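Late entry, written up from scratch paper. The run itself happened at the end of the previous shift, but nothing got recorded in the book at the time, so transcribing now.
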Amino acid sequence: MATLLPLKRSLEAEDYMVIEAYDGYEAIKKSKTHMPELMILDLMLPGMDGIEVCSKLKKDALTEKIPVC
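Output as recorded:
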């Protein structure tokens, strides 16, 4: 979470809308309601790590095309 604020501020300064999630479950839920153009995942998310989140997103027809980094 320590790196989230500077990253968020940098992206918002470039006029990107940033939607935060603090665990893997929240990331999946928000990806379906907000349909982001890009997801930046931390590998060490609580509850469900970033690799598992990415895997679940890619298996879902609704979210499979969201780029993840």
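Residues 24-34 form the longest helix (11 residues).
(Scratch paper discarded after transcription.)
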